[in-house]
Specification:
The chain has 442 residues and is an alpha/beta fold. A nine-stranded mixed beta sheet has the order 3-2-4-7-1-8-11-10-9, sandwiched between helices. Strand 10 and strand 11 form a beta hairpin. Helix 5 crosses helix 17 and helix 8 crosses helix 14. The longest helix has 16 residues. The protein is globular and about 60 Å long. It starts with 7 loop residues before the first strand and ends with a strand.
Length: 442
Amino acid sequence: MGVLSRDVYMVAGGVTKFAKAHPDKTFQVMVKEAFDSAIKDMPEFEALKEKLMETHELGGVGSYFSDHFTRQLMAGIMAHEYIGLCPAPGVRVEGGGATGGLCVQEGVRAVASGDLELCVCYGFETMSRLPTWMGNYIISKASDQRRNCDLGGFYTMFYALMADRYMSEFGTTREQLARISVKNHMNALHNPYSQYPKKLRVEDVLNSEPIATPFTALDICTMSDGAAVLILASHDIAHRLTDRPVKIIGMGAGTDSMAMEDRPRRKVPVFPWEDKELIRYYDSLLYPDVHSFNAGRVAAKKAYSQAGITDPLDQLDFLEIHDAFTMSEAQTYEDLGLCPCGDSGKFIDKGYAFMDNIDYGFELPEKGKLPVNPSGGLLACGHPIGATGIMQAVFSLWQLQHRIEEKFGDDALQIKDAKRGGFHSHAGTGTYITLTLAERAW
């Protein structure tokens, strides 16, 4: 499959604390806060920025989901201006929950093509300006408005349907899904940027407020205010700006129909490491049923091919993935080829996705093989939609720069000797999905 035409590096990033509300901060102020945090790691940035502005080799990509939340059309250019990027080129991208991941990939393409030498990817959302019910209604407009949204199609209901179908088909239990919530909230206890760090037990998740059967409140991420900035550069510029560059080694994206009922039945996209017996099993599956995201496997196959990944469990050190619901994290284990379709419950029980140095309160026999969402993910960090995918990229950058202790004030979430990892974004019920992979280059 296609490869990037030239090397692209992540060099610095910044994140605001995600919160239920930042009433004292406009979206511009939050983006500036994240941007200022990023450039503190690059003493030569300002001088180099001016030179690249003159040669038209610096630009920006803005990421936010909805004009309704900002109550402002063309908010992207306002953030672009506020962080001092005018008159450099800029563009806004939007793709539901995958907006941040798509933003990073557009920035990578701009640098890989040679159009830019330095690209600032910035994302934000101010979701607190509206009541929660109205926010959920606006988000539901990212489903098919005529056929799903106006029939009551809030995303919580869609994912509850998926969870019911998945558990019925494969035997995964509520307790297994609840373990994901325990993991992510307890990881976030060590992340000062997170919105909802909590010490939980499985019983706490199961007994929290019912939302949509089988989900309770602790199975679902929350709306948030927040911003994040990631700075990408070409080889020469990256090595001028930082002594800890992180190289993008692969990226993939996939799409699917907006309405789940429109999705044609296909064969399961197969990864190279999946054997003939497993492929025969896949041939018997109804796919993609509501328990599956074909676009996720499409994205992962391309990213792995570009990066030369033939066994993600052995070749990756961590993943930051889109866990808007406990169910979506479980589904994504399979999309990314970490386990076969239908085996996410077994994968959870083995403990592969859990940090090996944190006591979660239950036995995990093979703990820490490939930590997933060491940051706490969306469930615990929050989900200001336009910032989320960029936040995942920034936390991945810090992991690979071995700066978690410096940035978090605590080394509990630093993956020991992390060399390679990735971040994943997801929109709707799998309409846009991205996977981007990176490795330490210092």
